[in-house]
What does this fold into?
Amino acid sequence: MATSVVMPALEMAQETGKLVSWKKKEGEQVKKGEMLLEVETDKAVVEIEAAGDGILGGVTAKEGDVVPVGQTIAWLLKAGEAPPSKPSAPTQTGRKMDAAPTAAAAVTASAPEPVLAAGARISPKARRLARELGIDIATLRGSGPGGEILADDILKAAGGPAATGPAKAGHYEAPDAGQLTSIGRIMAERTTQSWTTVPHFFVARDVDATALSATRERLIPVIERSHGVKVTHTDLIVAAVARALRLHPRMNGSWARDSITLNADVNVALAMAVENAVVTAVIRNSDRATLGEIAKQRKELAERARANRLQPADITGATFTISNLGMFSVDAFTAIIVPPQAGILAVGAITDRVVAASGMIGVRPTMTLTLSSDHRVVDGARAAAFLNDVVLALSEPDKWL
It folds into this structure.
């Protein structure tokens, strides 16, 4: 019996996915677990494994196509078997089992899927707007790179307001504007949505990093022997934050559908810079992992992120995010929350500062932590209590390691 290959949903609220490449050619034998295709999300290019054995056939999507989640794009066939003649309509089988349908999906479920002209491309946001506004995208010419149809093009066609810039509508002529990837564009859309819809507030603390740095130096040879990786300040921060999240379940919660969900697991994501974008890779069960396990996961995730080889499990399920710009000599900054998470911690560089300690003036290695919180999930007192526990853990790491 033929096995369908569908466009998978790798995130909550995902409606479409972009096929980056096929790892197998039509007519080739495929074994279960082999890498079959690459799909681009707003976070990374993700390799998808084959769900079964068979010969790849009936391929209906080519590289660069944006396909609705759940739509069959190929088949895995037995020898001599022909692919079903009727293409399969998009179903929920491509979605994550724990992903609840979004309000937008509920509103537009009955709307017809916009059809593109041959060879045309469209951004996921533009496709969603076209469906909601009833715009025939087959008649549009895109203003994006390579003629890609953007959200502004849909708004113009609908007679609504479009973004304007110093040059022409929908454009900012940056020197590397032509190099912006789909990941970069969607990331920009998501951060704008978060900043404009999530009620952010911020609390900040300075941390004496004397004990933190001393502990790291002491553990470097230990972790290298046990796990083959050099422990970093980031690893210690992940461990401290994860243990504090366990004590503050609201901070580990999520906002969805006008209610708060308390997540059972503590999965801390790290923001990682890759070419023309930022991805958030997840260290799972961070509160239960040892420091060596955290360091090993962090190194492996960073290597896969740089190679654009993150797997679906690497980028989904985060309950809290850490963004560390200390390696770029940034003293302090505020970060934008990744919905539906309740918070994100911005970490600055460890620098020598003149401070008052025990009634005396001295120089101590110090770093600044800035916590961005969703006011719908936590209030100022809860956020301050959480950050205080993080500071205590980093100031005295030997007490919890």
